[in-house]
Amino acid sequence: MDETVTDIVPSLRKMATNNRDIYEKGMKALVSFVQFYRKHECSLIFRTSDLNLGKLATGFGLIKMPVMPELKDKTVDFDPVDIDVENIRYKNKTREKERKRKLQERKASCEDVAQQANAKKKKKQERNSVPWSKNKERKTNREKRKARREFMKKQRQQHLQERKELEELAREASLLKKFRSGKITKVEFDSRVRIEDQVYD
Q1: How far is CA 164 from CA 131, 189, 195, in A?
Q2: CA–CA dist 111, 76 (Å, integer)
Q3: Which intervals carry biased composition (Basic and acidic residues) (predicted)?
């Protein structure tokens, strides 16, 4: 490196560790630059495979490599800064407050998912640890309940059929009474009986 050129990378990286806005802009700048290369029409000149992504990231003052498809299954020459990036704050108090709120929500959501997964795992373990005799007893009880439901269903159907037949007999008896008392003729009696037989068949 030319000694007359000031190396500003350390300063950039230090700024990124103290200001989340600079940290995020550096990450976005690298991703945008690589995307430009990858999508450029003149791919013979702008070849992503020729880029030294590690040195490029260092030049952008990054303190860690971003997650991007171009880095998949690749080893890059990059020296990350040993820092928890979640602790890097915004200088703007409003943005920092909003970031912390979202961070807490995400953390709570992750904890809920973990608790649900643990509860599901525990339930499965308990189910698998139930003795064979207990499982057999449960199966027997299920079969008994099923048989009882089927029996009750048949009983209801039989009861409905019996009630239907009784109602039909009562109607025929009423028609017969009217016929004997002369209120309806033989033709009317036969006709009504046939109609009701068709309705209740």
Answers
A1: 50, 20, 15
A2: 33
A3: 149-164
CB 77 within 8 A of CB 63: no
Q: Is the pTM of this model over 0.85?
A: no
Residue 27, phi then psi, degrees to nearest 5: -65, -45
Please write down the long-range contacts of 17-24, taking CB distance under 8 Å and 24 or more positions apart.
17/63, 17/81, 17/83, 17/88, 18/88, 19/88, 19/89, 19/90, 19/91, 20/88, 20/89, 20/90, 20/91, 20/95, 20/96, 20/99, 21/90, 21/91, 21/92, 21/95, 22/61, 23/63, 23/85, 23/88
